[in-house]
Amino acid sequence: MTNEIEYGSYAFRFPEFVNDIVQIWSVGKDHQTSSLYQWNGLERRDKGSLIFQYTLSGTGQLRIDGKNYRLDPGHGFIVSVPSDFEYGVIEGEPDWTFIYITLQGEIANLCFTKLRKRFGPVVRFHPESEPIKRLTTIYDAAASDTISDGFQASALGYTFLMALETFLANPTDMLTDTPPSIARSLVYAHEHYADSLGIEDLATVARLSRYHFSRLFKKTVGMTPNHYITRLRVERAAALLTETSKTIDQIAKEIGYPNSNYFNKVFRKESSYSPSEFRKKKAQLSF
Description:
- The protein has about 290 residues and is of the alpha+beta class.
- About 45% of the residues lie in helices and about 20% in strands.
- A hairpin with a 2-residue loop joins strand 5 (about 60-65) and strand 6.
- Helix 1 (about 105-120) runs parallel beside helix 3 (about 150-170) and helix 2 (about 130-145) runs antiparallel to helix 3.
């Protein structure tokens, strides 16, 4: 997840709205701390909408079909409006940070219905899964004010749905085999890799001792926590080198390194290229 943009909500009401296909109604990233934050599916005004919401940190709760679901990091839920559901912050829990998208259209309805039938209203997604990557890309585009018309918004919404369809066909990006403690740390790392992030921070999020967390993380993920953070930073740097004209120093600071010298060393070690060479040759990461 990118740390460039913090929180915001963006609605789209273009004249060339194509409701029979798929259209983004809204997209956002939010942080809530009060148990007064509650949404009721029978009282919402955005009738005909389909909501996908993914927990980044903290915990929320969804009540639907007579059941209560905890929405821990890595959990995404799917609901349609209007219907009998309610979601919000749990009283006594510290906070809830999430990213969401609201869609309309027949294709969106078909895709969400299939997902609900197969997995239920709550699904665990790896933070590196394609649906979450697509959602993050859409949010960043909205926050950067680069979604200019309804056709572009519809196309972005369609790419998100196709990522969900691919997930349905081969759900290898689920976190079902990942211990909840490690799942929390993975999602947190994706959200905060550009901060001064270390093993102690992730162990705290995982609610484990540093020793036990480090062993379990490596066993589950296949690399140490520090190496995982480095990989996240290098992947983001590679995207910025390829897609933007930002300077090496700007990119270094954006992904969490104090200066370009240290960033150069790390990037070369992981990719076999210096950042400048990577950009010039339009190279790709091999991991």
